[in-house]
Amino acid sequence: MNQIQFLEPKAGIIARRAEIQAGLAELVPADCLVTEERELVPFETDAFTAYRRVPLAVVLPETTEQVAAVMKYCSQNGVPVVPRGAGTSLAGGAIPQEDAVVIGVSKMARILEVDFENRAARVQAGVTNLRISDEVSADGFFYAPDPSSQLACTIAGNIGMNSGGAHCLKYGVTTNNLLGVKMVLHDGTVVDIGGKALDASGIDLLGLVCGSEGQLGIVTEATVRLLAKPEGARPVLFGFDSSEVAGACVSDIIAAGIIPVAIEFMDKEAIDICEAFAHAGYPMDVQALLIVEVEGSDDEMDAMLKKIIAIAKAHNVKRVKESQSAMEAASIWKGRKSAFGATGRVADYICMDGTVPLGQLSHVLAETSKIVEKYGLRVANVFHAGDGNMHPLILYNVNDPAEAEKAEAAGMEILKLCVDVGGCLTGEHGVGIEKRDLMLHQFTETDLNQQMRVRAAFDPGWMLNPSKVFPLDLAMRKAG
Ligand SMILES: Cc1cc2nc3c(=O)[nH]c(=O)nc-3n(C[C@H](O)[C@H](O)[C@H](O)COP(=O)(O)OP(=O)(O)OC[C@H]3O[C@@H](n4cnc5c(N)ncnc54)[C@H](O)[C@@H]3O)c2cc1C
Fold first, then answer.
1. Cβ-contact 100, 55 below 8 angstroms
2. Angle between helices 326-337 and 339-346 (to 10 degrees)
3. Cα of 80 vs its chain's centroid, Å
4. What is the distance in A from the centroid of ligand 1 to the CA of 281?
5. Of the candidates 143, 166, 300, 352, which lies 20 to 30 Å from 98 by C-alpha distance?
């Protein structure tokens, strides 16, 4: 897979490699700087592993002041910067370029303040998603957005991509649970945006930062909303004879005004893969599975489930299985949340992330199968159905260039289809390099020019994550 272009590395910067590395060494402790070729290799890609570039240097600062000093140095020396969290981006958002300094926040991993009175936590940007919930769980609280990568991914990366997860149907994605950030701008200036209070006045800069994919600054701290844990939660499995019928059932549940905490979808390929890995007790005689989770008191859960079961029955549901214990519930979620890893055991894959209006779910599922079949490939669908956020995992062999090209072409067709039915290119994984060249399928040049003007207001020299999000020719015209 070699179709996606990167910016040509600036020869002047590459020639100054040793000088720049020495300059950085003045700014951070020795154990916060990586310059040896073999130690740089782990930073050459993210979870979009088909593309890789070894960066000029990696800085792993421990404080906002160190980030500011490095940003100022890079700005003054014309060195591009690529921000990095845990490097789990599926869209290539954290893949560096050869003339860039990677600033990784993995050492900034302290929880700074837990404020139950204001239901907020202030954390350094490198804290992992799951750690926030772990920290406050004993007190009856949690942090809602739950990407399946939550054991590894950082709050910084979640903010960069406006990440979601299975339980975002009810609680919203990162932007709905973020209260404030501390961010270092391209020239080293430090700004505080938002805070513990809801809805700051003025232009919503926080909304702008969330999902900006490392193009506006380096987030070093985040203040996030904490929620009280529900009284109880119960995932229920619904098995159907076809993906299309399961998709129609999802639209009807939402159309009835019912909002469970989660509605997740798996097709037969995904059920087989996940069950073999997690032994979650999924029914094996169905073609599609919904995991619907309800929460609240027993009475509330019973009442909501009654309505959902009635809708599922109208769609000839074949199996209904309620979890009977906390262990069973955990096992059901383990199967779903390990879907990408489990798929990686059987094949290489690229994961699409288009979102469609719910009424189009069945149609897009059927068309996705046709597209993938046309290229002679296989697909496993496992996704956040309640949000219409589809994740076809297109299976291929990374060592077969022809097959890799087909997988990429099939993925692009599926994403275009999502846009054509009124959806969008990305629900939660971001644009990165993966979908950058499709942005003109969703937006006009005028739309993108306006977005790039906003970007340029933060980064006039176009030095922050410069190869991402915008088609390269447009971006280069804008960057001058
Ligand atoms: C197995 C697996 C399952 C996944 N499941 C989900 C899922 O359910 N939901 C979901 O939304 N995503 C999912 N993802 C994708 C990924 O985990 C998310 O995009 C995650 O938020 C990335 O976090 P990270 O710390 O790894 O960030 P990175 O991958 O390092 O970076 C992500 C983006 O944020 C930018 N960035 C990083 N740090 C900063 C910073 N300090 N300041 C400014 N910008 C920064 C980067 O430049 C990049 O553009 C999954 C990935 C994998 C591998």
1. yes
2. 50
3. 23
4. 30
5. 352
Q: Is this structure's pTM higher than 0.85?
A: yes
Longest dimension (CA), the chain: 69
The candidate with the shortest Cα–Cα distance to 415, out of 351, 343, 336, is 351
Q: How many CB atoms lie within 10 A of CB 41?
A: 13
Average pLDDT over residues 80-96: 97
Q: How confident is the model at residue 477 (pLDDT cuts 50, 70, 90)?
A: confident
Yes or no: say if 268 and 347 are a contact pair by the CB < 8 Å rule.
Answer: no
DSSP alpha helices (H): ranges in 178-297? 205-209, 243-255, 268-278
Q: Which of 45, 97, 163 to mutate to test the pocket of ligand 1 (most atoms within 8 A of CB)?
A: 163
326-339 burial string, b = 16+ CB within 10 Å, else e?
eeebebbbebbbbb
**Res 480: pLDDT:** 63
Kindly calculate the radius of gyration of the chain based on its CA atoms and give it in whole angstroms: 22
DSSP assigned state of 152 = T
The preferred substitution site among 43, 88, 191 for testing ligand 1, maximizing ligand atoms within 8 Å of CB, is: 88
Kindly report the CA angle at 425 between 218 and 465, in degrees rounded to 5?
25
pLDDT digits (tens, 9 = 90+) for 37-66: 999 999 999 999 889 999 999 999 999 999
DSSP, res 255? H
113: CA distance to ligand 1 center in Å? 23
Q: Report the Cα–Cα distance between both ends of the chain, in Å, rounded.
A: 29
| Alpha carbon distances (Å) from 30 to 61, 82, 105, 303 | 10, 20, 16, 60
Tell which phi-psi region holds residue 422, choosing left (phi > 0), alpha (psi between -120 and 50) or beta: left
d(CA 319, CA 282): 10
SS3 at position 345? helix
Average pLDDT over residues 321-346: 93
How far apart (Å, rounded) are the C-alpha atoms in residues 417 and 420? Answer: 5
Length reported for the chain: 480
For residue 159, the CA-to-ligand 1 centroid distance in Å is 8
Q: Which two tokens stand for residue 252?
A: 């009807």
Non-local (6+) Cβ contacts of 119 within 8 A are 141, 225, 226, 227, 228
Return the half-sphere exposure (C-beta side, CA atoms, 13 A cut-off) of residue 170: 18
Each residue's pLDDT tens digit, 114-143: 999 999 999 999 999 999 999 999 999 999
pLDDT digits (tens, 9 = 90+) for 350-385: 999 999 999 999 999 999 999 999 999 999 999 999
Take residue 270 and report the two structure tokens written for it: 């995904």
Return the closest-CA partner of residue 55 out of 75, 73, 41, 74. Answer: 41
